TrEMBL record:
Pfam families: zf_C2H2_17_1st, zf_C2H2_17_2. Residues 76-123 are annotated as: Disordered. Gene3D superfamilies: Classic Zinc Finger. This is C2H2-type domain-containing protein. Residues 7-34, 44-73 form the C2H2-type domain. InterPro entries: Znf_C2H2_17_1st, Znf_C2H2_17_2nd, Znf_C2H2_type.
Length: 178
């Protein structure tokens, strides 16, 4: 069953689009793609630091972010990542986002030591920092797990190569008849 799509975008670059089934779909398209009607809503960024969607172009819909995390990062437990990511400052607002990874980690440690010494900071800042650290921890665990799997695969390949080499050496004869 084909739906009628009476709401069309009038921009030339969107001529190939089929259209939208309701006016809200067209309005959202115009807002997000063409910056009309006040421009895109607040962006939701990928919590994975090394992803281009972490800083460059976020998502305007939570469902799209969840789908991105599932497809691109192969994350099964999307809700735990998002729970840790809620209320984290927008990427680009903290100075460490533009530093190298080592400098970024060092500045985070420095910030946390300052936070622990200065209890006058607003509770929101402490919560945001805690959530950011949880995200970093989650990402490190994920990377560690991926490396562990890769090492296991490499060990298996090495074992197979060693076995094949051993078999070939057993077949080889010094007189060249092997």
């Amino acid at each position: 069953m084909e739906h009628e799509r009476p709401y069309k975008c009038d921009k030339p670059q969107c001529a190939k689009l089929l259209g939208f089934t309701y006016s809200g779909g067209l309005l959202r398209h115009e807002r997000e793609v063409h910056g009309m009607h006040g421009g895109p809503k607040e962006q939701l960024f990928c919590p994975i630091k090394h992803c281009k969607r972490h800083t460059e172009q976020g998502f305007t819909r939570r469902e799209n972010l969840q789908e991105h995390l599932r497809r691109v990062h192969k994350l099964q437990d999307v809700d735990s990542v998002e729970a840790a990511a809620q209320d984290v400052p927008t990427p680009g607002t903290a100075p460490s986002d533009h530093d190298s990874d080592d400098e970024g980690r060092a500045s985070k440690r420095k910030r946390m030591s300052v936070v622990s010494q200065n209890e006058d900071l607003p509770e929101e800042d402490v919560r945001a920092e805690l959530k950011k650290l949880r995200l970093d921890n989650f990402e490190l665990k994920r990377m560690w797990e991926a490396q562990r799997e890769e090492i296991g695969e490499m060990k298996q390949q090495l074992k197979q190569l060693t076995t094949q080499q051993h078999i070939q050496l057993q077949r080889w004869r010094p007189d060249g008849t092997g």
